[in-house]
């Protein structure tokens, strides 16, 4: 069945209840959407499950949407395993008394979803019986997914990273460390190119880098060697010893002659 056919079939099953059918967005993933009164919520879920043409026998998820002054929209998505089509069922409950019937007797898997929706939005599901805290500690006050709920972490402490743990409120902490390759705020981007300047150094947007080029310290000049001036590291003249008294390449080593063994003295021993 197409989404339009699914929506029309649900409206026919609920007659004479005033139900409105539409089609959600998503193009190829569009779903039939039917809005029903809160009093007909459980009847609409039962009709969608038990009808042979619809066969919506799988509960996908249940949650709510905060519409501020208009109340809360309780939304339920059903899926047909056999027919491969889905339904998005919705009902709106008032903000001052957000109560709707539970569907746990029709889909036992809805118990977890209704507990979470009750905890996060403050919506009561009549007939559930065990709307105990699911994700938050029992002493938690308020409903975090309501739009008027103020996150206490933003009020009780400054933005994370404002100061390191253990630092005083007066400041004087460590300098913030930027990730490698991320410039400082004053070094980001380019500065406009002066009039008449062009060529090297211009960026893709026509500017020169805002950070000036780092200048290297000048090195001390080495003394120049003229034609008649001998360098201190020049090779020594012939007959002179090399550095540290070592012989130069191609010369015989100098020093006391090497003593040869006496054959007669060897025979006598």
Helix content: 10-25%
User: How many whole angstroms does the radius of gyration measure?
Assistant: 44 Å
Query: H/E element string?
Result: HEEHEEEEHEHEEH
Low-confidence stretches: 189-210
Number of separate strands: 9
Main pleated-sheet profile: 5 strands, mixed
Describe this protein with a few key phrases.
two-stranded parallel ribbon; 5 helices; 17% helix
Structure explained in plain terms:
This protein is of the alpha/beta class and 269 residues long. Helices cover 17% and strands 17% of the residues. It is built from 5 helices and 9 strands, in the order αββαββββαβαββα. The strands form 3 sheets. It has a 5-stranded mixed β-sheet with strand order 1-2-5-4-3. A hairpin with an 8-residue loop joins strand 1 (20-23) and strand 2. The longest helix has 12 residues, at 3-14. 16% of the residues are buried. Residues 189-210 have low confidence and may be disordered.
What is the structure about, briefly put?
The protein has 269 residues and is α/β, with parallel strands linked by helices. The protein contains five helices and nine strands, in the order H-E-E-H-E-E-E-E-H-E-H-E-E-H.
Topology at a glance:
Layout: H1 3-14, E1 20-23, E2 32-35, H2 41-50, E3 58-66, E4 72-79, E5 86-93, E6 99-101, H3 110-121, E7 124-126, H4 152-156, E8 190-192, E9 207-209, H5 263-268
Parallel strand pairs: 2-5, 6-7
Antiparallel strand pairs: 1-2, 3-4, 4-5, 8-9
